[in-house]
Amino acid sequence: MSDLRDLYQDVILEHSKAPRNYHELAAANHKAEGFNPLCGDRFTVYLQLEGDTIRDVSFQGSGCAISKASASMMTQSVKGKTMAEAEKLFGRFHDMVTGHAAGGSEPELGKLAVFSGVSEFPVRVKCATLAWHTLHAALEGKQEAISTE
Amino acid sequence: MTTAAKRIDAEHAPSRATPSRFDVEKVREDFPILKHTVRGKPLVYLDNAATSQKPRAVIDAITRYYEGTNANIHRGVHFLSEQATEEYEDVRRTAQEFLNAAHSHEIIFVRGATEGINLVAQSYGRAHVQSGDEILITDMEHHSNIVPWQMLCDERGAKLRVAPINDAGELMLEEFEKLLGPRTKLVAITHVSNALGTINPIRRIVELAHSHHAPVLVDGAQAVPHMKVDVRALDCDFYVFSGHKIYGPTGIGVLYGKSALLEAMPPYQGGGDMIASVTFEKTIYNRLPYKFEAGTPDIAGVIGLGAALKYVSGLGIENIGAYENEVLAYATQKVSAIPDIRLIGTAKEKAGVLSFVLDAIHPHDIGTILDQEGIAIRTGHHCSQPVMKRFGIAATARASFALYNTKAEVDALVRGIEKVREVFA
DSSP label at B142? Predict the structure, then answer.
């Protein structure tokens, strides 16, 4: 059961039940759709970019607890950041959930560190990163839905 | 449910007046993998609709073949080749008897149900389907019984028609009948739905299709492990199944086709074994069944399949089906009693599959938590995205049963689902 609690931490469960920034964004000037064909999870990420800065960000869609909580906490983490900062954070987050983190604490990740337990569940890595891949696509201005496969 | 509940009570009664003809504990001894633990817990394998575990008889048959008989078939004059050929062709007769086909040459060895369907789509389909023609399938097909027909329809300018299902997951027969017509060139339908467990009334469907001169292909991948299949009684024109879902190896399966249809069909693949003679000017194709078996086949797979079919026949498919129905009825009763559960697929006639969703908990989360308890189920769309769409969901959790599953394992599943609800409480 302890392993399970590493994955399903209270913060994650709470975000999955009450996701933040979970709405369409009227002022969005970038958006992208992400899809995991293996489980049917599907999210849209909306961005309001002002120059290089993410002025506002939101998401909508359906997915498992991990993917939804990850999307919710991602929107909180990247709001106000520059595109480069958001991409760097994605890199750190990706390294952490795939178990490739350099080791030691990752102060930059902040609250996102609750997802470190995902690295013990390799099949769930795609759940945790779906929203981030979608954000990446939105930042790049991709038009087609991106897929985890 | 009342009948099922009564039957269960009767079985728990101390009376031994009617000893069961099926001893599940003895059967479990035949499957080495069932002795394993997963994450420190006894393995509870409930993903049989994806693939079944293999009995010792199958594992040994494959080992025996590689250790003592390995040679190429239909070619050599030497002892081993003769013996391998004989064993290989013996399995064709075993499969013929298993399906009650009229002739052994109506049994074509393929890689699995998927390849069987593709063979019929590419060979029979391309020879008979023209622009404006129609192929009729149903809303409960596996992707393997959708995509090959879509490919054919795209190529030919034909139309794919889809018969609807009701809220219980049963084919709406009257709507199916309305979709049959002079343009229907083929009907392709699953015998048992992999996502819902629904058993389709194949005999009736074949009658309806034949009254419109449309041949019928039946996808039997989920049916053969659970029930007696008699292709002559069903009068279907093609029947496919995969070995690995009926305790045999992966990579081997059977296409049954009526002799007259197979005879008239062009080959699917060219190569060795499928020819009678080859010159650069002209090739004469081999007779059935070899016309459809180009190249060196999966000989060990065929021998393993033969052992699996014999294993099932030895236990008696009717005994297996009766026992599995008891377990499924018990599981249906227990799981549907869990709060916030919704069963997906509640047909009157079902086999082997219990699909469900939990309010506000995604199937993937259910699967991960059950896995920590050593319980293997499938979560996702089960290669049946149109079924998911029909029920307005993205995915389900699916427990699927085999002859070695027990009511105690169902209890473990129920405890596991309760744990899921605790985590998400």
Answer: -
